[in-house]
Amino acid sequence: MLEPKQAQTLSEAYAVLDPLRFLSGEWLKKFYVDRPEECSIAGLHDALLLDPSDDDKTLFTGTRGSGKTTELHRLEETLRQDHLIVFMDVADLLNLGDIRYTDLLVLLGLEVFKAAHQAGFGADEKMLTQLRFWYEEHILEQDKGALSAEVKAELDVAVARISGQVKADAPKRQRIRAETQSHLSDLLERLNYLLQELRKKAGRRILVIVDGLDKVYDLNQVRDLFLQGANALLEPACRVIYTVPFALSYTNDFRQVSLTFTRFCELPNVKTHQADGQIYAPGVDMLRAILDRRMDPALLTSEAVDRLIEHSGGLIRELISLARSSLISARRLRGDRGPIQPEDVERAIQQVQNAYSACLTKEHYHELARILDGEQFVNSDVAKELIHNLSLLAYDGGQAWRGVHPIVRPLVERWKRGQSV
């Protein structure tokens, strides 16, 4: 397993600059950098720590790439003493191109089943057998004894098999949905019995973290998931955090549904500039520290670091992805020890620009040009698309000001020049 340590060469840096590796465990301890106070989730941490409830439900949102998963793993670490935590990543378990709330509840029940087994419940104990019988009757067909497995590896295989059916096998996915819909109240009753008994045995509250719903491809699909299934998603007798796409914050019907949840928390983007264009030092310093902890500062020129930070838009995943693409260019031209130069960063920026250029429409450019010219933000379907594809970034939480992604700005300026000819 790769050791989390500061890279001394570009080859080592390539491994630690993996934009898809979220910080947890030793990686979290080694590479985590505290966010500026105004863009942290201290409020969510305090709310979960101080609220005595054992079945509150939280919606958690933020721009893709802003660091939500890392912050959830950090939350997991800080709350572990008082909670038994079940962390499930929807992106690993479900089909992000076709997802319903019933799929989510089927997998949530399985993850709680695994957690109870790991906490010491035997497979023949009543609180486990009741839930197991539900899966055997309604989900499992050819392998009805699978969830009785006493060996964790065998149990994991059985759970993975069910997940695989929901994720990759469309006919079985439809059958499972129909069965779950018809017998949902029974599933929730048995799940809640297990959760209550698990809490007694563990002596701690149960917190289920459902990560990855913000990665669902179709924004309308995840909106419908909550519109149709909100009542069911509120039913599990434990604390639950559901991640949701940031663009849903701009959807009126979802906003109405969100009021039925205990809290709706946002992870603000890390600013590199204030709304008036002035440098925001705390944000810049945080992003620089992210690079410094992962790789020897001698591997980048100061100009290259400045360009990486400026063009990241304050998105942590964008910063790491740009740095990784830049080092590929540097290695090809100058060998393993670098350093990364501004021209390497420029090549990485150009690759991302090309991707945006291929997907932005005339309607997108028109809206981006308005924002770039300082006009007021107007909530519309086009604006939601721009927020979802990261062309338009929001800062400062509820008092949001919006900025065009730094990598997209030159494309918008070019479009404006073409319109004026």
Explain what you see:
With 421 residues, the protein is α/β, with parallel strands linked by helices. The protein contains 19 helices and seven strands. Among the domains are: 37-267, Rossmann fold (3-Layer(aba) Sandwich); 360-420, no CATH class. A five-stranded parallel beta sheet has the order 2-3-4-1-5, with helices on both faces.
% residues in beta strands: 5-15%
Poorly predicted parts? none
Based on CA atoms alone, the radius of gyration comes out at 23 Å
Largest sheet: spatial strand order? 2-3-4-1-5
Largest sheet geometry: 5 strands, parallel
The SS-based structural class is: alpha/beta
In the CATH hierarchy, the third-tier topology of one domain is known as Rossmann fold
> Helix tally?
19
CATH class (first level) name of one domain: Alpha Beta
Provide keyphrases for this structure.
single chain; 421 residues; alpha/beta; Rossmann fold; 5-stranded parallel sheet; two-stranded antiparallel sheet; 7 strands; 10% strand; globular
Summarize the structure.
The protein is α/β, with parallel strands linked by helices and 421 residues long. It has helices at 10-16, 25-31, 42-50, 68-79, 90-93, 101-118, 126-138, 152-168, 170-182, 184-202, 219-233, 252-258, 281-294, 302-312, 316-334, 342-359, 362-372, 381-388, 409-420; strands at residues 57-62, 83-89, 205-211, 239-245, 263-267, 392-395, 401-404. The model has no long low-confidence stretch (mean pLDDT 89).
